[in-house]
Amino acid sequence: MERNNNYQVGNAKRRIVGQRNNRQHATEMKDFISFLPLELMLCVFSFLTLEELILASLVSKEWAHLVKIYLSVVPSSLNLDELKMSTGIINSHRTILPHELVNISLMTRVSISNSIISGNKKFNQFASRALYLYSGCKVKKLFLNLCYNGYHSSRQMVDQWIQFVMTNEVTELDINFSNGILIGYDITSKPYEFPYIQPTSKSLVSLKLNLCNFLKSNLQAFSYLQCLFLKFVKILDFSIEDLATKCTMLKDLTIACCLIPLNFMVCKKDINFRSLTVIRCFSQKGPLFPIDISSPKLLMFNLENCHLNTETNIKAPNLIEMGIRINKLYTNSGHRETLIKLLGHFSQCQTLLLNTWCIQVLSYEVNFIQSPPFSFKNLKHLKLQSGLEKEELIGISYLMRKCSYMECLTLHFHEARQILWDDLEEQNHIFFDFEDDQYWQTQSSTFYCLEYCLKEVRVYSDFGRNLEMHMLRFLLENAKVLEKMFLYTHQKIRGQQQDWLSGVKELSKGKQMVLKH
């Protein structure tokens, strides 16, 4: 009897303990957070990273709904970086940046490549989940930094992400496909090509593409674009005229290191671009291609590392800012005539940038022809990239005379880079028969801009050469209304550079001088 009583008491205790454990377990599993006020939940979510928000959305459907509400009321940018995520797996304390992949060892490169391959599925799931949560939300900018390998599965996944962009309110899209090559994927694999896109996005106004193909059939889907930036892009079958016709709202165009059709830059009708930048592009004839455009509304034009020839013709009567940087090793009469023609057409500019090649060519024209037919009466800011070669000094002096109302002068000093004169090489010593270290002392005539207008000089230099000191001495002694001089350097001043700096400080007494590293 006593044994039965003990057995019953034991069962009762176990039932009580079991009930207590069940109540405790139910209490622990109960979702109290979901019942908090929405405003408080949104405040909590504001402290979470994207990764943490995605984890929170996996807790339950209710939590996923709350995360989507938060993302819908907080306009944000979405950065999906496959390289960063993959290298972070190797070393959680330090992420390898794209430019560092150039100098790493083969073993490290293979390790990173294997990590990216193994983590590709995880990244795709993460990116797809993130885009699902952002469905119907306003996304200020979507950045996709991909290690694209050209395989069918990768292309299908990117196609889905592009479809998301075109059917949601994404304002800016930036896609970089180049990291696949950096980690060792086959460079001959076919670059990404956009699929046929049916919906036209009215929200997407800015598009940046790096290392892919771009087709004429893609233009219709991006007809509301206002800004287009293409780098290492193969433009297959359209011209700048097609681009302006299909994308009628396009204002800013930059093409850098792109492979373009031979007549891409030829347009028979006016285009309404606001800014145009062409950097080191190639056609089937290499860097040589005609440029013939008319853009009455063009305000900014930059041409870098492209050939100037007799087929270069740009009509932009309202241009405000122009930059020409040609890094060629030689020059001929056609180059010189085209440069002088461009400078003459754009004499209304307020900001002008020229590099050492342009300055040397201009020096010859000034010395030989005596007076090129242009003057920059509206120019306020002159930017010169110079090695202070003897062949540049005449051009620099001439520009300062022709920019009578210049208020700011920016000088980027770099290593001297003398060009070959081709048809004039034998006569070069006749045109520049003077001592370069004595040149500025011989400039006795008045510079109007130095007398009345020049208020600020900005100098970028890491060298501290005597030739630089001679020019700065000339400016400091003759600029009557100069207020500030900024000196920018990338390294600590030491040795001879310290003497150079001390000399500049001595000359700048009475004027504000600022040194920035």
From TrEMBL:
Residues 1-22 are annotated as: Disordered. Residues 30-68 form the F-box domain. It comes from the Eukaryota. It holds the Pfam family F-box-like. PANTHER family: F-BOX DOMAIN-CONTAINING PROTEIN, OS02G0105600 PROTEIN. This is F-box domain-containing protein. It comes from Vicia faba (Broad bean).
